[in-house]
UniProtKB/TrEMBL annotation:
The keyword Transmembrane does not apply. This is Glycosyltransferase. Residues 191-339 form the Glycosyl transferase family domain. It comes from the Bacteria. Pfam families: Glycos_transf_1 (PF00534). InterPro entries: Glyco_trans_1, Glycosyltransferase_grp1. SUPFAM superfamilies: UDP-Glycosyltransferase/glycogen phosphorylase. Signal peptide: none annotated. Keywords: Plasmid. The keyword Ribosomal protein does not apply. It comes from Rhizobium rosettiformans.
Length: 377
């Protein structure tokens, strides 16, 4: 790390270093291209991206606790020690506590800039399970965000999320930026020269093994599908999340092939025909859907703003309605039956999806250019 350029440093704060490396490596690339020092404050024990220093902090994503004050103190100390030109906060707890830390650091003389990435509204705004306690917690969180992010540049993946924040008076439009998700390398994610020819339809769920992501819906669809020429595949890593689905639970579903963690996603997507994401909360633009579309897969996802950026009904994929687990599972089975009888439809929709991804700015270069401009400002 270039210790002689402390004022040309970007400090990132994120929940998990593995997630940061997978979804935000392009931000490190931009910072390095701009000749910045890069420090990533994140939880987890994974491997950080190249060209950055990983400063580990403990972040429990699933509850608010008095011990979280340690996160605020750690960020304050890092700001005052490194004096970063930019503090870039990603995920809810980082921009909640990082926002508080930034305001304290400014009182102590820091004059850097604050950038926030909002990957989606997340489970905080899961209106289906909004109890009185959650409503109160939501009010407190929004109060803190209004106070601490008033001078931040807020980056959104969808105009819907941006408008929602503006309506809730969490920011103003002049302080917002729009980017097309996290961006992918189209040299890496591309359609295979030749897909499998065994006439079996391969349907994939790939991502965090969470019920809120719709894994329970996918498992219900697999249980009721009962088609001999269809392979239902799950890829992902178990994690310590109260909403998580365990490997033991997945093993209780013999109709599903569970692969566990998969590092070579381009190869896996090159073997898949359909990728399903029945998420129950409002995400940004899901990376797995971008990757799947770029590889020529038919994408099937719950109808939310992030999926609308990628899916045109019947043209580049299919929507699932926000409804019960059973009805969504039945929708998935109906789509699978339709596609299994019409291989030509799979090819046409896949080609449409590839064209959409390449034309609409989902490549990593386009997203990197956007953040180069943001950091330069």
């Amino acid at each position: 790390m270039k210790t002689d350029k402390a004022n040309q440093t970007i400090v990132f704060v994120s929940n998990d270093i593995d997630n940061f490396r997978h979804h935000r490596k392009h931000l490190v690339d931009v910072a390095v291209e701009m000749d910045k020092n890069v420090i990533v404050m994140a939880g987890g024990n994974g491997t950080p991206p190249a060209n950055c220093y990983h400063k580990k902090i403990e972040i429990n994503r699933f509850r608010l606790h008095w011990s979280d004050f340690n996160i605020i103190f750690s960020i304050i100390k890092s700001i005052l020690y490194y004096r970063p030109e930019i503090l870039h906060l990603i995920n809810l707890k980082p921009y909640l506590y990082g926002g508080v830390a930034a305001q304290v650091a400014k009182l102590l003389g820091w004059r850097g800039n604050l950038v926030v990435s909002v990957p989606g509204l997340g489970r905080l705004y899961d209106t289906q399970n909004l109890t009185a306690a959650k409503k109160m917690r939501l009010r407190v969180v929004e109060l803190v965000l209004r106070a601490c992010l008033r001078d931040a540049t807020i980056c959104f993946e969808t105009s819907s999320d941006r408008d929602f924040w503006i309506e809730r008076r969490l920011t103003v439009i002049d302080r917002t930026e729009l980017t097309n998700g996290t961006g992918i390398d189209l040299e890496q994610f591309h359609p295979p020269e030749k897909r499998h020819s065994d006439r079996r339809l391969k349907v994939l769920y790939a991502g965090r093994l969470l019920k809120a992501k719709g894994l329970d819906v996918f498992l219900a669809a697999a249980k009721t599908c009962g088609m001999e020429n269809v392979d239902m595949i799950v890829a992902g890593q178990t994690e310590a999340d109260p909403d998580g689905v365990s490997e033991n639970t997945l093993r209780e579903h013999p109709e599903v092939l569970f692969l566990g963690r998969v590092d070579d996603m381009p190869r896996l997507l090159g073997q898949a025909d359909v990728v399903v994401l029945p998420s129950r909360y409002n995400e940004g633009v899901p990376r797995i859907l971008i990757e799947a579309a770029a590889c020529g897969c038919v994408t099937v996802a719950t109808d939310f703003p992030g999926s609308r950026a990628l899916i045109k009904e019947g043209v580049t994929g299919f929507f699932l309605q926000r409804s019960t687990k059973e009805s969504q599972a039945n929708e998935i089975v109906s789509i699978i039956e339709k596609l299994s009888k019409n291989p030509t439809m799979i090819k046409v929709i896949g080609n449409n999806a590839i064209e959409h991804i390449r034309k609409e700015g989902f490549a990593s270069d386009a997203v990197k250019s956007a953040f180069h401009r943001i950091y330069s400002q």
